Amino acid sequence: MRAVAERSALSREEAADLVRATLDTLGSRLSAREAKNLAARLPESLRDSLHIQEKGEHFGLHDFVRKVSKRTGLTMREATAGVRAVLTTLREAVDDEAFAHAMSQLPGEFQEMAEATA
C-alpha cells in the first residue's frame, strides 16, 4: 500500500481503497482462470479483493478508470494516476509471467499504464 500511496500521492487509507477497487475491477475484466492465477500471487490480505467471475467483462481503460473512480470517490484524474500506480506496483509485485498473462487479456493501453512510470 505504501508504494501505491507514494506513486499516487494519496493517503494510505485512500491508497488501500484504490488498490481494492482496482483489483476488484481488474478481476471482473479477466477470465476466471487468469484472475485466479493472479490472485494466487498476491499477498494473502489482497487475494479476496480480486473479483473472480466465470467470464470477464469487456471494457477499455477509460471505463476501467471510471469504475475505479466511482468506487473510490476519486476524480478521474486521481483515479487515472491511482490505476497507473496500482498496475505498476502489481507488475513489480508478481512474477513477470503472471503479469504478462493477465495483461494479455487486456487492451495494450493497460500495459502502457503499467510502463508509464517504470
Kindly describe this structure.
The structure is a single chain. The chain is built from 8 helices and no strands. It has helices at 2-8, 12-29, 32-40, 44-47, 61-72, 76-93, 96-104, 108-115. Helix 1 packs across helix 6 (76-93), helix 2 packs across helix 6 (76-93) and helix 5 packs across helix 6. The model has no long low-confidence stretch (mean pLDDT 92).
In short:
The chain is an all-alpha fold and 118 residues long. It has helices spanning 2-8, 12-29, 32-40, 44-47, 61-72, 76-93, 96-104, 108-115.
Task: Output the keywords.
8 helices; 118 residues; mainly alpha; 0% strand
How do the SSEs run, as a string of H and E? HHHHHHHH
Class by SSE composition: mainly alpha
Number of strands: 0
Spatial extent as radius of gyration: 13 Å
Number of helices: 8
β-strand amount: under 5%
Mean pLDDT: 92
Percent helix among the residues?
Answer: over 70%
Q: What's the story with the biggest beta sheet? A: none
Unreliable stretches, pLDDT < 50, 5 or more residues? none
Distance N terminus to C terminus? 17 Å
How does the overall form come out from the CA principal axes?
Answer: globular
